[in-house]
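hey so i finally got around to running the thing on that chain from the lab meeting. sorry it took forever, my laptop kept dying and i had to restart like 3 times. anyway pasting the input first so we r on the same page abt which one it is
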Amino acid sequence: MASVLNTVPSARFSNPNANRVRTHSVLAPISVSFSRRRFTVRAAETDTNEEIKSQAAPDKAPASGGSSFNQLLGIKGASQETNKWKIRLQLTKPVTWPPLVWGVVCGAAASGNFHWNLEDVAKSILCMSMSGPFLTGYTQTLNDWYDREIDAINEPYRPIPSGAISENEVITQIWVLLLGGLVSAGILDVWAGHDFPIVFYLALGGSLLSYIYSAPPLKLKQNGWIGNFALGASYIGLPWWAGQALFGTLTPDIIVLTLLYSIAGLGIAIVNDFKSVEGDRALGLQSLPVAFGSETAKWICVGAIDITQLSIAGYLLGAGKPYYALALVALIAPQVFFQFKYFLKDPVKYDVKYQASAQPFLVLGLLVTALATSH
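ok and heres what got predicted. didnt touch it at all, straight out
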């Protein structure tokens, strides 16, 4: 086309009118039920309002006069919104859609059968919508639902823990996005004339992976290695497979290659773990920054990203495609530059700047690899 809820000792979910702290590429089994609890966080009975305020560190509060643009993208620095549709969009984190959309482009390119005609363009747009707004939106909303206790510690001003959106509205959004993605996948299989509904099963498998990533009892994100690799495979492997299956044939060598490339996705996933260290540690989630410390984890992160891409470049060179290998190395160089300029200096302060600067080169490298495999 990338999960255990413990009770936070100092917080509980109660009436939404209680004292609020305004301080942070997929099918679930039909039998899944969501616990129906209020999200508003308030102090334990032994806490005073003054103590609550003192616990709200300045870097945990929403930016003064936060950005409406950031709110619509679903990234930090967002303004506080009361418009429900803007809040719904924020929960889907549109900033996370482009890698999935790009993955479909890479898969279509790797198939060697995409043509610039109206039908193929329309198919690709529907496949991108399935991968991005529908299934990535489902994944992000589901993740925020199951992370509501962690967010109550790390980012309590986010829509769910702050009570800006009700539990029924969140659950409805999860199901609408999930079913929209699966229906889109079924339409694509019929449109492509598949005897076996491969796009539907890829969407179904990705949906299940998203569920077990976020939800107990498995909650893959509890383990930094397994959870981040699952996330990386979802962002790199699944959309590529969908795009290639839609326009051509998904082969075992492509599956292996994209799974290896997903190790770079593991590194990208680690970037998002640094801002959640406090909440992860409090709730027992073994993210890599928690398990190894921030200094070691940031080197694991950049190592996974760079070594994976260099290995792919070596593979292309060995496969007799030196120009593609050289192009990939040229795209790795600026990523390394931005790692030293931003990420390695302060992975929390510069995470957005780093991802905005470096990731375009990584996704261009994916396209180079896809084009190489199509020839």
